[in-house]
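lol ok so funny story. i was supposed to be doing the assay writeup but got distracted and ended up predicting the structure for this chain instead. priorities right. anyway since i did it might as well share w the group, maybe its usefull for someone
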Amino acid sequence: MAAAALLPAPSADGTLLKQAMRRLVGGVVVVTAGIGDDRVGLTATSAISLSVDPPTMLVCVNRASSAWPVIARRRHFCVSILGGGQQAIAERFAGIGGLKGAARYFGADWTIMASGASGLTEARALVDCTLDEVIERHSHAILLGAVREVRLNRAERPALAYGSGRFIRILPE
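and the output, tada:
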């Protein structure tokens, strides 16, 4: 059997870890928090359901992001699961174009969730959470959110994913 074509020299280098993780394809979400002019948000691929009993989400947020202090203060967040036609929103909330805070919300329809956070109306699904626990590790905060409300979009659309440094549409079978 031929040996796998792996790159040489195991390493704990953060740059290599970033390169390795870019090869993993992940679903794209926008995480939002705040109310009114105090609204913030970010694009992430690090959002998963931790438990269904009780319903709990896990989201990782860089503590240097502008969203982190608002999430910590408001103690809520909403995860909008994006579809294939929502790349522009993902880019806007990733900071591409330079918009910050509430300015990132313009040009899309939003709904106010049970926690007070905004959810993207046309997202594939919305998962609204109150902040249950925060685990601070290194540069990030691991958010454990108690799910307060879930809304599913009836329109089936391709999923938006991110891998190899680009957005990818995943079509339903």
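The CA atoms of residues 1 and 7 lie 18 Å apart. The chain has one domain: 25-115+122-170.
back to the writeup now i swear
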